[in-house]
């Protein structure tokens, strides 16, 4: 058993005056920098929220220090996908298969949720784990790292979506959304489902990093079609619906279009399925992350 060293307070002098005392041990080593825990649930909650906020800002600015350039990068992905799908629908002459209404709004309803889902998945899966150097700081933990990574992805996606909608509304044609709150809720639900799936992959990644990276790539590529953003769910026969209704993003996109178009009423999807799907994967991810955090070692990645 290691010998416990008692701590006592030694007053420090600054310019001849007695300053704030420092905690020191019996051999005279004083602790210059320490983390004092706040007692009580409300102060502890305030500390955690403050840490999440600062970590979120760090994640947003980590890839690009210029906020405008980071927003332009995120907007470029949406613009490229909108242009590609608009050209494909026009060249193949299948614009009539879309919902009656604004065709660009129909494309945006699928692309924005698709990007939000993938951004949440990639952000959580790439969050800092228990062996990260950031975890050496006393108040930092994996829950804060995962939460901040997910919120940073949501912030960037919301900002890019609102900017593109504003540009389209002002420069091209005014848009009208009957239920914007419901459509935004589906946007957040798509992000939440992506974060839940990413949490499960994050818990499994230290055990088999190569396989999990491949699974993540395959899932995101399959979602290009399985998400249902290129077609209307109500037009699918029952045999085709069975190929897509496992996907929470399929339900979120179809329900979002029901909130965005007056003459569209989704009947092949539901709101409850992606909610329960995301909650179930969130619980599995939390359990897996707990087990991984207790067993993960920095030496696991030494051979890679």
TrEMBL record:
<feature type="transmembrane region" description="Helical">
    <location>
        <begin position="103"/>
        <end position="124"/>
    </location>
</feature>
<keyword id="KW-0812">Transmembrane</keyword>
<keyword id="KW-0472">Membrane</keyword>
<feature type="transmembrane region" description="Helical">
    <location>
        <begin position="144"/>
        <end position="171"/>
    </location>
</feature>
<protein>
    <submittedName>
        <fullName>ABC-type polysaccharide/polyol phosphate export permease</fullName>
    </submittedName>
</protein>
<feature type="transmembrane region" description="Helical">
    <location>
        <begin position="68"/>
        <end position="91"/>
    </location>
</feature>
<keyword id="KW-1133">Transmembrane helix</keyword>
<feature type="transmembrane region" description="Helical">
    <location>
        <begin position="231"/>
        <end position="253"/>
    </location>
</feature>
<feature type="transmembrane region" description="Helical">
    <location>
        <begin position="183"/>
        <end position="204"/>
    </location>
</feature>
<feature type="transmembrane region" description="Helical">
    <location>
        <begin position="273"/>
        <end position="291"/>
    </location>
</feature>
């Amino acid at each position: 058993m290691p010998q416990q060293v008692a701590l006592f307070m030694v007053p420090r002098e600054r310019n001849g005056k007695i300053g704030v005392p420092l905690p020191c041990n019996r051999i005279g080593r004083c602790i210059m920098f320490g983390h004092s825990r706040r007692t009580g649930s409300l102060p502890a909650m305030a500390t955690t929220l403050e840490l999440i906020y600062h970590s979120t800002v760090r994640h947003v600015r980590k890839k690009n220090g210029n906020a405008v350039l980071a927003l332009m990068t995120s907007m470029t992905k949406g613009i490229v996908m909108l242009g590609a799908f608009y050209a494909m629908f026009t060249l193949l002459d299948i614009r009539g298969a879309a919902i009656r209404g604004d065709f660009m709004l129909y494309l945006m309803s699928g692309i924005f949720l698709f990007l939000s889902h993938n951004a949440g998945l990639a952000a959580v899966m790439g969050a800092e784990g228990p062996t990260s150097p950031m975890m050496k700081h006393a108040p930092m933990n994996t829950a804060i790292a995962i939460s901040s990574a997910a919120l940073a992805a949501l912030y960037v996606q919301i900002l890019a979506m609102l900017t593109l909608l504003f540009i389209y509304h002002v420069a091209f044609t005014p848009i009208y959304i009957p239920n914007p709150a419901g459509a935004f809720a589906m946007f957040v639900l798509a992000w939440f489902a992506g974060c839940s799936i990413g949490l499960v992959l994050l818990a499994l990644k230290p055990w088999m990093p190569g396989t999990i990276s491949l699974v993540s790539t395959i899932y995101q590529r399959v979602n290009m079609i399985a998400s249902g953003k290129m077609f209307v769910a109500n037009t699918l026969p029952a045999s085709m619906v069975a190929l897509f209704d496992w996907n929470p993003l399929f339900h979120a996109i179809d329900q979002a279009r029901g909130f965005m178009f007056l003459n569209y009423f989704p009947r092949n999807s539901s709101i409850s399925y992606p909610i329960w799907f995301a909650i179930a994967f969130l619980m599995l991810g939390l359990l897996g992350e707990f087990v991984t955090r207790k067993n993960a070692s920095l030496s696991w990645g030494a051979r890679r």
